[in-house]
Amino acid sequence: MKIMPCPLNGPRPIQEFTCGGEVVATPNPDRADAETWADYLFLHHNAAGIVREWWYHVPTSFWFIADRNTVTDEIVRTFLPRELFRPDAQRDQP
Amino acid sequence: MTEPRSPIDDAVRAAGAVVGEHAGVTAVTDYGDPEAEIAASRRLGLADLSPLARVGFRGPGAREWLAARGVELPDEPNRARVQPDGSIAIARSWTEALVLGALRGADSVCDRLEAGAADGHRVRAYSLPRFDGMFWFALTGASAVDCLAKLCGVDMRESAFPVGSVAQTSLARLNAVIVRVDLGDMPVFHLLGDSASAEYAWASLLDAMQEFDGRPVGLRALHALAREFE
Amino acid sequence: MMRERLPPPAGSRIDRSRPVRFEFEGRAYTGYAGDTIASALAANGVWCLSRSFKLHRPRGSFGFAGDEAGSLVQLDTEPNVQADARAIEPGMRVHAQNTVGGLEKDWASLLERFERFLPVGFYYKAFHKPRGVWNWWEKIIRRTAGLGRVDQSWTPEYFDKAYAHCDIAVIGGGAAGLAAAAACGAEGLDVLLVEREPELGGWLTYGRMDSDDGVLDDLRRRIQALPSVRVMTSATCTGWFADNWLAVTQGNRLHKIRANAVIACTGGTSQPAVFRNNDLPGIVSAAAVQRLIRHYGVRPGLRAVVLTAGDEGYAAALDLAEHGTDVAAVVDCRPDPPTGPMAAEAEARGHRILPGHTVREARRDPQRLQVGGVLATRVTGRGACAADGETIDCDLLVIAAGVAPAGGLLAQAGAKFRPIGRSAVPRLESLPAHANAAGVVAGAATVEVALAQAEQAGLAAAADLSGSAADASANSARPDADESSATWPVFPHPDGHEFVDLDEDVTVREIEDALAEGYDDIELLKRYSTVGMGPSQGRLSAIATAAVTAAARDTTSAEVGATTNRPPAVPTRFGLFAGRGFQPVRHTPMHGWHVEASAQMMTAGLWMRPAYYGRPDERADAIADEVLTVRRAVGLIDVSTLGGFEIRGPDALEFLERAYTPSFRRLRVGRTRYALLTDEQGVVVDDGVAAKLGPDHYYVTASTSGAEQLYPLLLWYQAQWQLDVDIADVTSAYGAINIAGPRARHVLETLGTDIALSPEACPYLAARTGKLAGVDVRLLRIGFVGELGYEIHPPASQSLGVWEALIDAGREYGIRPFGVEAQRVLRLEKGHVIVTQDTDGLTHPHEVDLGWALGRRKSFFVGKRSIEVLREKGLSRRLVGYAVPDRRATVPDEGHLVVRDGEITGRVTSSAWSPVLDQAIGLAYVAPDQAAVGSAITIKAAGGRLVEAEVARLPFYDPENLRQAM
Known about the structure:
- The complex is a heterotrimer.
- By secondary structure, chain A is mainly beta.
- Chain A has a single domain (3-83), classed as Folate-binding fold (2-Layer Sandwich).
- Helix content of chain A is 10%, strand content 37%.
- Chain A has one helix at 34-42, and strands at residues 3-6, 10-13, 17-22, 50-57, 62-69, 75-79.
- In chain A, strand 5 (62-69) and strand 6 (75-79) form a beta hairpin.
- Chain A is globular, with a radius of gyration of 15 Å.
- The relative contact order of chain A is 0.22.
- In chain B, the strands form three sheets. A six-stranded mixed β-sheet of chain B has the order 10-11-12-9-3-13.
- Chain B is α+β, with helices and mostly antiparallel strands.
- Chain B folds into two domains: 9-51 and 132-228, Probable tRNA modification gtpase trme, domain 1 (Gyrase A, domain 2, 2-Layer Sandwich); 54-129, Alpha-Beta Plaits.
- Chain B starts with 8 loop residues before the first helix and ends with a helix.
- The relative contact order of chain B is 0.21.
- Chain C is elongated.
- Chain C has 23 helices and 48 strands.
- In chain C, the strands form twelve sheets. In chain C, strands 8, 9, 10, 11, 12, 13 and 27 form a seven-stranded mixed β-sheet that branches. Chain C has a six-stranded mixed β-sheet with strand order 39-40-41-38-32-42.
- The N and C termini of chain C lie far apart (93 Å).
- By secondary structure, chain C is α+β, with helices and mostly antiparallel strands.
- Chains in contact: A-B, A-C, B-C.
- The interface between B and C is large, with 45 and 49 residues.
């Protein structure tokens, strides 16, 4: 079984994790046209090569992001979501 | 009637547990043969420590807030540090702590921390109800490593998992926190997991212990061993 | 009766002081402790162990190494036991497999005469026409085919699994494996050495050496002296998975081994030659002969013929001659004169050698189920030999066609092999990362080369682990240049029965026919002809298959390629895969109480919940009684299984606003609000109640089935939103008790609480904290069942105490516990939707009349955009309540269809007999134009009966909602 290097727990058997799918940018739900929105919801890139994915370590309820090569199944890098996501202040503030 | 109750109360009583009070904690003192339980603990013993105090805190302010209350949390996640009073402070992540009360019971640290929970909330150190949410067992003795190897995929040998190590992993397919803090030269693994699955975990452990001639042990045996090592 | 064994040192594995009596096919035999079933039978002159899978031909072991179907036998309670690997035990009763009426007189062997009706690919061709004929064939096939028989009265054995970790795992404890383990151990590495056989040494324990220079003793001593080398014997590595995860079986345990690096020293497999009747019992490999002599002290035969394509046939001939077997001839199928030290010695000792000859066919002993002689003829070309030659009588035919690297495990891990030279024996070409190989599997032909390779592999692995990047070429010492000058010995015969695959009874002609039919890709060929699909998984057939295919296609074996190797590498008992079967179960704090109170427990996800209280034969009455008690007096239900989340921090409100559909901005401390959750596609995912316990503290419940998935989802949102909030799953930390019914308030007041309970102080939807029965509880005035009700959330460790206190206090009000079944009826009477029962993977809020739970003024929540899109498109269905006016009509079941003019317009999602309304009620999806109250709908119920129902106004019970607000 594969080893996943978890940023919190170190290398662990892949059975301790679940994959949350590709990291995709959410289009602005108010401004995106219907086609863009439908693409976002229903289409997946399924690219051959290095893909950025969500992974969840079940015993610690810990989400992180992994760059994984879908051709070789090599995990290139794992890191915390806050590297990519910042608190966004504009959405839904009164 | 409404005293706190271990999540495996039914199971230990069915196994002949003698439940009594020790240093303000009502727990399994023995299973009828404290002397044999001391020997068994050295070989392979399983004790229910669920009646002992424990509390969790999480949040950006947790580390600082705990430090201000004299809890020295290890700097790195997945490490445990024994406190001067015998309690164990565990860093579950950069922002989460789990404090296990001292084996000798009558713990004040956890009570004090819990009493200050509202105060912690204000500085974003949110309390987590681990006493009720998690069971707490101790697996002790020379065969503990081999026994855990039947239930858990993390290398528990001392070379890979020395005293003070913490693994948050899967134990018999159950999410669990495994902490190694020995009693003198006797290996002790503290096992914590979902209290609702405590009976399942207890039964799974006893099943895995069979081939090593392991058995459940009471607090009296552990206290005796602790005195021996003092 | 037992034949005399050879004197020591032959027979190293048997204990002559401990005879073991056992039975084979009802006849008594005696062997010695340490014998395998097959060696003990061979010692008694019995070679035939079973009948073949397809044609029921007599078969025995070829290699005596536990590799083939030919040696599969049946024990009383265990089928498919490898007779040449399983030790005999006193009183063991062994039976041949795959026979109808016994090994000697198997009537199914008549099948052979119908062989032409069993062409290649017969699985795909026959039995299907004319229509219905399969039903007849199936019975016949099930009786004659298949392997062992399962004992239905069997009691399960204890199987389990264990993890192990090491720096280096060495697979195979022969010369190379021992040397590699010693080299790594000397570097201080933590080494695990895995050996399939009961003792270390491999070929060194049975092979014929030029001189006994103590190599084995020396290696064993080195290993023993190294404390960091752990040795597992009788342990088989069956799988080599990603990141060096090895599956190793030993006894009833599956070891899951994680190694930082692996060195494969898996050796080789002696191959059969292909000629007519090459499957007769008594035709064995050169290695088998040497094992029988040195391990078991068995004199394999009285008169032997050896067919060889290399030096090892001569070694076997010398061993046989020295141990009292007359060697009639060594038939060497190489065209050139034999070379090599063993050949020279054999020649010097005057053995009769027939160079450039082969065995054209083997002939059966007319009296016994075994070989009785051979026809040896001159080789005339690639795969061709003369029809006439010399007939030689013998009771043993030894085959030394060549040794194939046992590369199955390495190939699983990603190593590449490539057939080379005229013999087309595969050679290791490349290795995956953190893997190495040494010995025969890496092409070594001599012990010296194997040891040198092993030393180098050990050092390379040590360097790899220490991070000093070893030169890739140092991965493995180059193998010997030694190459056979002969092509692979495959000699088709005009009368057939030259078996390429003995497991599956596949002959040369069948492979040629399959190729002619167009199955010329090696993977297709395998599946169509079944070659390589038996227990030996191509270990004894791949080279010959490639050779036959290459000849037919006029190409090379390298071009033909090899099939994919997959785990398990050897047949493995299902019990080993199953292990202990860990299945976590969750119990509420009141679990023991429910069981005591004779609750019938049901599973709800991982949880156990009371379905109802009472005997199964009282089910309907028990449920009705529980329902009526809640409606008329007071009942209580354990709802500890509800999910519970603490949402705390300055952004707690902001988080709820985004994650849930309603708005919580106007929710005051001490109040609750329905919390609906949709996903990004606008589909209803879960619902619960959010209670505001403090200015930035919410306690949110989730459904029993949804909580486990919901927590990761909420954390995933937070991972993206990065709000200043903490989300904690406290499901197990709190028990939960719903007390409901007109007398609920009385019970709480009787019990004693510091929470003011009057309707004014604690109105519907209030949330309070306080003491109840001396316990700090959270009290939510909500309810699912439509009566005055309170959800009490005490700490888990004190929940049982509160539950028992409520039961005591409620006795005077006629309280009784109710289960999930009664709750389903009660909530259905109130028209409440259960997410995942009344919703599916497409349900959006407007379809189930939950539009009111969408925060209209919110600029964002997960699912908002999609719900708007769906709403604009118009509804395609709606969930409605219905009642069946005819009280004698069949009560529809969940899943029954709503039909109109022969078309399906919807389905029933909830259905029950309402004891209060005294009629069948339910929820169903219907077409939007059927959704108006009063519309008639037709439900196709059990047995196709059409039930007329009427769309009803929800809730069915207490439409003004007066009772829950009491």
